[in-house]
Amino acid sequence: xxxxxxxxxxxxxxxxxxxxxxxxxxxxxxxxxxxxxxxxxxxxxxxxxxxxxxxxxxxxxxxxxxxxxxxxxxxxxxxxxxxxxxxxxxxxxxxxxxxxxxxxxxxxxxxxxxxxxxxxxxxxxxxxxxxxxxxxxxxxxxxxx
Length: 145
Ligand SMILES: [Zn+2]
Prior knowledge:
Strands 4, 6, 7, 8, 10, 12 and 13 form a seven-stranded antiparallel sheet that branches. A four-stranded mixed sheet has the order 1-5-11-9, with no helix packed on it. The termini are far apart. Strand 2 and strand 3 (about 30) form a beta hairpin. The chain has one helix at about 105-110; strands spanning about 1-5, 25, 30, 35, 45, 50-55, 65-70, 75-80, 85, 90-95, 100, 120-130, 130-135. It is mostly beta strands. The chain contains one helix and 13 strands. The structure holds zinc ion. Zinc ion binds near residues 31, 33, 35 and 121.
């Protein structure tokens, strides 16, 4: 199975650790991305055309989890979290190019008291002279965000 990360996907169902919407509460912080329900091992397709600009690590204490960043032609960085990359930094990708495989993020948070539903976290960032600006991925359109 393969999915393009896009607004038509179902959001992560609310679970013990929160909700998947942009702006959802995360304790003292705010969720600055959208979580889309996704089964581990699903192939993840880029939501945009662009270039792979980073293969990152969401957690400094567990380097098995990864994210893929694709920067589009307008300079917006699209980050797909909990995605084991199959591309390299500098690769050009088209929309719907496979960029990786969904990881089992639920496993990290699986305790007796709390469970998390598997998902891909998608965030859209523009780097400015004042730092990072986050956009709601559902309001984003290439070129007019
Ligand atoms: Zn998230």
